[in-house]
Design a protein that fits this description.
The strands form three sheets. Strands 1, 2, 3, 4, 5, 13 and 14 form a seven-stranded antiparallel β-sheet that branches. A five-stranded antiparallel β-sheet has the order 11-10-9-8-12. With 296 residues, the protein is an alpha+beta fold.
Length: 296
């Protein structure tokens, strides 16, 4: 499936911001056999005084922008074409959950794809007794690691309500779990904490999700969204499994991966520092358009 992806993030400041510096995780990844970034352009307005393009430890594309003169607004714009490759449905090759620790103990690799980076607490996620207890209630004797991921993710989907007004970007996962309300970031953080609590390495995925308009309604420009979901390591043979707890499904061709990390702090789409005062406003518009639709 080919997609043309457009994104615009606009920041407005009540007073001109001085010394602004922004770090962006917005360019989609190329993942061998799963996803190819065919072309991608990320631009900033006003033109930055400094720009650095690099990759981080987890091989995500990162762009740093800096402005020395005062600015009263900042706009980041992305245009990309991505091929998402459908994956065949595979059998469950993961070990019983109790055997996952043995497989982890035999792994000596500590590179970017190593599950060891995704086992314990991370900057935005502490191990939670309440979430671990929730996860353990989903387990049955002899359950495999893959079955555990699906069982916990589906129960979380059943008990959580998607509510864009319930939380902010910095709401602790423990609070969202207590409320059982939140957005995709909250769903993902909670599932990650649940899985780590029972010994399953799990990480955070940021990306884009193609959405469909209601039946009989035209698609609205800019109505798609950046999204988040979870990747869990289910053994040497099972590898990494991606699950979307917000929508209760295994990740497929409607999902476009931007970045992998331990939690949101590793892959925030746009974060930075500046000197200003007064209120700030942010607006985001996303389009994920199948190329056949774009050409029609």
């Amino acid at each position: 499936m080919l997609y043309d992806i457009g994104l615009k993030i606009e920041h407005g400041y009540a007073s001109p911001a001085e010394g602004a510096r922004t770090l962006a995780h917005l360019l989609p990844r190329t993942i061998w056999g799963q996803q190819t970034l065919i072309t991608g352009v990320l631009e900033a307005d006003p033109w930055p005084d400094e720009r650095i393009d690099r990759t981080d430890f987890f091989a995500n594309a990162v762009t740093e922008f800096a402005w020395r003169a005062p600015v009263d607004s900042l706009v980041l714009s992305l245009q990309a074409r991505v091929e998402r490759i459908a994956q065949p449905q595979t059998l469950d090759f993961s070990p019983e959950l109790g055997g996952l620790a043995c497989e982890l103990a035999q792994l000596r690799d500590v590179g970017p794809e190593s599950p060891h980076h995704f086992r314990g607490a991370s900057p935005r996620l502490a191990l939670s007794p309440a979430m671990t207890a929730f996860a353990r209630e989903c387990l049955t004797p002899g359950i495999t690691a893959q079955q555990a991921v699906l069982a916990i993710g589906r129960r979380l989907h059943d008990e959580m309500k998607f509510d864009s007004d319930a939380t902010e970007v910095d709401t602790p996962p423990e609070e969202a779990f207590r409320l059982r309300h939140g957005v995709c970031q909250d769903f993902s953080h909670i599932l990650i904490a649940c899985l780590r609590g029972i010994g399953v390495p799990a990480g955070y995925v940021s990306g884009f999700l193609r959405t469909l308009p209601p039946p009989g309604r035209e698609r609205l420009a800019g109505a798609d969204a950046m999204h988040a979901w979870v990747r869990a390591w289910v053994g040497v043979d099972g590898g990494w499994l991606e699950f979307d707890p917000t929508n209760d499904l295994l990740v497929g061709t409607d999902h476009v991966v931007v970045a992998y990390g331990r939690d949101y702090s590793d892959v925030a789409p746009d974060r930075g520092v500046l000197r200003t005062w007064g209120k700030q406003a942010i607006d985001q518009a996303v389009d994920v358009i199948p190329v056949e639709t774009a050409a029609a």
